[in-house]
Amino acid sequence: ALLACAFALIGAPVLGCEELVHTGLQGPPSMATLMLVAVGRPLFSVAVAGLLVLCSCGCAPRVSEFLGAKAWKPLAALSYSMYLLQFVGWGFFGRLWVPTAGALVGALGERSAPWRVALAGWPHIGAWILADVPLSLLCYLLVEHPGMELGQRLVADAAPLKSSGEAPGHGMPPADTASGFGCCGEDVERCLLIEKVAPTDA
């Protein structure tokens, strides 16, 4: 799984970016480039899924410990906002393209090695991230995090209302919220038995 992830990441700068490929190679893409564009993303997805399975079943404890480190929590918190706003910062990102990956790609020619084309894309990715992080941070602080806190408060306020009402059935005592059962801590069959033998009003 790690080798597949590494293989896909090497070609990540050219995945789905035909303009970068044509500009860097100054001509039609090679068969290897076409194959990379076709299978790179599915391969990366399968590799990540396999890696998650290995971590969840305890087969890769070191990788699981590395991915679960506290240092990744800020990035994990921003991940969804970065996904939503990845194209919003395109105007600012375009200005970063010229002095970074734009200059590197412009220096490439027909005989440039594929690994040079791939490496030229990494400043492209870095510039995109730099443009995306500030907007994502604002979105997380002003929208996402307050929304999650509001949802937690609503759920916490609704929980006592569900557990404080009377149990279903005539003549049954109120629910025992401390034990988590619906009839004074008894199991469901006993509650149904009490409901069955309870006297009815004349």
TrEMBL record:
Give the organism the record lists: Zooxanthella nutricula
- Give the record's keywords alphabetically: Membrane, Signal, Transmembrane, Transmembrane helix
List the transmembrane segments.
32-54, 75-93, 125-143
Residue span of the signal peptide, if any? 1-16
Protein name, UniProt field? Glycerophosphocholine acyltransferase 1
Domain of life from the UniProt record: Eukaryota
